[in-house]
Amino acid sequence: MSYRSNKKWRLAHTQKRNASRKRYYKQFQRNAIKKGKRWTYDEIDLILMSNDTDRKLQKELGRSVQAIQIKRCRFWQGL
């Protein structure tokens, strides 16, 4: 597959890919107890320093996997 045809395929399937991502993340948001709550310093330390998977952290913290990933990413970006 050439670069041009690959780029064309990716542009055509962006909506399909985004829909499948939303479906994937929605299954983990059902267990989010602390939706909309502020992050504590202990929770931030746990997601940054822990070697556990995001699914284990989700169950322990009561937050969604997506929220954990976004918080970790924003922390490293300095936001």
Set down the secondary structure blueprint.
Layout: H1 3-12, H2 14-29, H3 41-49, H4 54-61, H5 65-77
How is this structure best described in words?
The chain has one domain. The longest helix is centred in the N-terminal third of the chain and has 16 residues, at about 15-30. It is elongated. The protein has 5 helices and no strands. It has helices at about 5-10, 15-30, 40-50, 55-60, 65-75. The protein has about 80 residues and is mainly α.
Summarize the structure.
It contains five helices and no strands. It is an all-alpha fold and 79 residues long. The protein has one domain.
Low-confidence stretches: none
Helix content: over 70%
Main pleated sheet? none
H/E element string?
HHHHH
Figure out the total of helices: 5
What is the distance, rounded to the nearest whole angstrom, between the alpha carbons of the first and last residues?
38 Å
Structural class: mainly alpha
List the defining traits of the structure above:
79 residues; mainly alpha; 71% helix
